[in-house]
């Protein structure tokens, strides 16, 4: 996943926005990442990835899935969540 790829697909929040928010705001809890354009408050798929970025000293170096895989995995997650 590149910097301008969407991490929160519900609210179209990019990885770059989340990393910058973490660097500037220094949130203490993962739930505070919701203040970054609503990230993590939609379907919930991105929450583990948001936590992963927050838990790292250098969030820009965290390896996340490719956008295509990420989107497909989210579609499966939403399908199972709604059934």
UniProtKB/TrEMBL annotation:
Domain of life from the UniProt record: Bacteria
Protein name stated in the entry: BFD-like [2Fe-2S]-binding domain-containing protein
Pfam families tied to this protein: Fer2_BFD
Lineage: Bacteria, Pseudomonadati, Planctomycetota, Planctomycetia, Pirellulales
BFD-like [2Fe-2S]-binding domain: residues covered: 8-56
Organism of derivation: Novipirellula rosea
């Amino acid at each position: 996943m590149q910097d301008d790829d969407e991490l929160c697909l519900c609210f179209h929040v990019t990885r770059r926005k989340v990393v910058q928010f973490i660097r500037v705001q220094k949130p203490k809890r993962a739930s505070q990442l919701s203040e970054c354009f609503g990230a993590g408050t939609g379907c919930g798929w991105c929450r583990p990835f948001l936590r992963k970025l927050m838990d790292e000293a250098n969030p820009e170096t965290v390896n996340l899935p490719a956008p295509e895989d990420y989107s497909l995995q989210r579609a499966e997650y939403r399908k199972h969540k709604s059934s």
